[in-house]
Amino acid sequence: MSMRWREDNTLNAIAELNEQTDRSLLIVEDDKPFLERLSRAMETRGFAVTSCDTVSDGLAQIGKSAPAFAVVDLRLGDGNGLDVVSALKKKRPDARAIVLTGYGNIATAVTAVKMGAIDYLSKPADADDVVAALLSTSAEKSELPTNPMSADRVRWEHIQRIYEMCNRNVSETARRLNMHRRTLQRILAKRAPR
Q1: Is the pLDDT of residue 171 over 90?
Q2: What CA–CA distance (Å, rounded) separates 49 from 41?
Q3: What are the structural domain ranges in the chain?
Q4: 28 strand-pairing partners
């Protein structure tokens, strides 16, 4: 994607956001550093951000006040982010939600769209991409990624995420991934695939 196209798209999206009366945005993400970065970035772009790190907190927030926009991680510590998208669409059918994931595949993308998401982005997603996805119209075609992650890369990212969740404990990570400890150690010793 060219830098010029991206800047034009971002400026158009911000201009479109200024026309919106309700700028409420719910972000549900269990990766706290990413959640904080994305929340700050979306606030600077004009959104009124509420952030949660669990499905239950997201559902509670929707119960109080359903936002106009939502950015939801697919896999959360206490459940599936699609439950949040579904609840939001029931409470507020005009809400625009996108799903973020590091483990994307066609089946989950189709499911996310069927549950009411307007787009599906791979993590780590740039704030400008998130804004463009939230404000895009159905007439606009989303550009295919120029560098999609390979299956090996997706697998490696998943293993790294579980490894970090287990506080870098190889034995616990191997148990959770249902693989032999030595196999996991060999994978962790290698560089990330492209």
Answers
A1: yes
A2: 10
A3: 4-133, 149-188
A4: 52, 72
Q: How far apart are CA 41 and CA 47, in angstroms?
A: 9
The type of residue at 49 is: V
- What's the rounded Cα separation, in Å, for the pair 60 and 65? 9
145 pLDDT band (50/70/90 cuts)?
low
The residue behind tokens 């609840």 is 87
- Alpha carbon separation from 164 to 158, 169, 188 (Å, rounded): 10, 8, 12
- Across the range 4-27, mean pLDDT stands at 62
Spatial distance between the Cα atoms of 93 and 70, rounded to a whole number of angstroms: 12
Domain 149-188 has CATH 3.40.640.10: no
What was the pLDDT predicted at 16? 54
**82 with 112: CB under 8 angstroms?**
yes
- pLDDT digit string, tens, across residues 50-73: 999 888 998 999 999 889 999 998
Query: Do 193 and 153 touch, CB atoms closer than 8 A?
Result: yes
CB atoms within 10 A of CB 81: 26
CATH topology of domain 4-133: Rossmann fold (3.40.50)
Residue 71's nearest CA partner among 38, 53, 97 is: 97
Give one word for 167, left, alpha or beta, with left for phi > 0 and alpha for psi -120 to 50. left
The DSSP output letter for 30 is S
